[in-house]
Design brief:
With 341 residues, the chain is an alpha+beta fold. The protein has helices at 7-14, 18-68, 225-229, 302-305, 327-335; strands at 139-142, 150-154, 159-163, 191-195, 200-201, 213-214, 218-219, 289-292, 297-299, 306-309, 314-317. β8 (289-292) and β9 form a beta hairpin.
Length: 341
């Protein structure tokens, strides 16, 4: 008995039915729905790890700098009277080519043109967070780590009187913190490098006209310790920021600021980057990264950084991350009561 199939029958036996095809498509769609969120989380995790790795390298470079300069970190002073003796340029800040540029590679030179009167700065490579749009530099140094941060010109002698952070009696932040070196107590809790807003656009564009965005030199100069992290609707009145984050006057608005020019940050620290969020960049909801004096890097949620009391309009630090070792004393003095046990 011959049981072989004809060519036509064999073709029919190999074909999928419509129902079978739809079942396969449904299974593929289900697998995609299951895998995409996991892939998205894996991508966010990878970017967060890269950000932490970059910050650790920056903190290490600053530690090596401090070892070379008697445990002192770089200065963060700027203005027309502050002249770098090495190149006669204005400003002497940690991210200058003449300071951290001797310990880290230059990856983005577009911050300032060669004809600018101010010191060129280091950007790109380890100075950027992968979740910071169009980043030229994503990190800033803790203001209270500066070896000099304020000055007073003496026009009679043509010299400058330099002050460490919080030591200038004429400044609004007088005694609002304690300057420190790399030998500071509680090094595992004292902030050295933090994520910061990239408020300053590059003077130079690339071949297709695109710009990158750079942080200011330091964070944490004004306000009480808890207010500096975020959650303060009034924000930090940083004079040099006025008009910059809003995109007013001659300043374009940074991509990470969003399109709502009435919206402003509530503190020095951007929370939207980890995990990356695009709907509301100023929402205080996320886990920014911080590098500490001892060299480790950790991320913290808002609740781990500060306690927000909207009724009393107070934003007290939890003191898990310290701007300086005087944080609790400063807040107790200014808020008028002791921290609850």
């Amino acid at each position: 008995m011959n049981t072989s199939l004809s060519p036509a029958d064999r073709r029919l036996s190999r074909a999928f039915t419509l129902i079978e095809l739809l079942v396969v498509i449904a299974i593929i769609a289900l697998l995609i729905g299951i895998l995409l969120p996991a892939l998205g989380r894996a991508r966010d995790t990878a970017r967060d790890v890269l950000c932490k790795t970059n910050m650790r390298q920056v903190a290490t470079a600053l530690t090596v700098y401090a070892n070379d300069y008697k445990d002192a970190y770089p200065t963060n002073i700027g203005g027309q009277f502050v002249i770098d003796p090495e190149n006669d340029k204005q400003n002497m800040t940690w991210h200058d080519v003449n300071r951290i540029g001797r310990y880290l590679p230059q990856g983005d030179f577009k911050n300032l043109s060669v004809n600018n009167a101010q010191n060129p700065t280091v950007g790109g490579t380890v100075m950027t967070c992968p979740n910071h749009p169009d980043a030229g530099r994503s990190y800033a140094m803790n203001y209270w780590a500066s070896s000099a941060a304020e000055y007073r010109p003496n026009f009679n002698t043509g010299t400058l009187q330099l002050f460490k952070p919080g030591r200038n009696p004429d400044a609004s932040n007088f005694q609002f913190g304690e300057p420190f070196k790399s030998t500071v107590d509680r090094a595992a809790s004292v902030l050295l490098i933090g994520e910061a807003w990239g408020l300053w656009t590059s003077e130079i564009t690339d071949d297709i006209g695109e710009r990158t965005w750079f942080t200011a030199a330091s964070i944490g100069r004004l306000g009480l310790p808890g207010e500096r992290f975020g959650g303060n609707p009034e924000g930090i009145n940083e004079e040099t920021w006025e008009g910059t984050w809003r995109g007013n006057g001659n300043f374009p608005r940074a991509p990470e600021m969003g399109s709502d020019t009435s919206a402003t940050p509530e503190g020095y620290v951007p929370f939207y980057r980890h995990p990356r969020r695009t709907d509301d960049p100023f929402k205080v909801d996320g886990q920014p990264n911080f590098a500490f004096v001892d060299g480790h890097v950790s991320s913290y949620s808002p609740a781990e950084l500060f306690n927000r009391d909207d009724n009393a309009m107070e934003y007290r630090s939890t003191y898990r991350v310290l701007w300086s070792v005087l944080d609790e004393r400063v807040e107790n003095r200014e808020l008028g009561y002791q921290r609850a046990p």
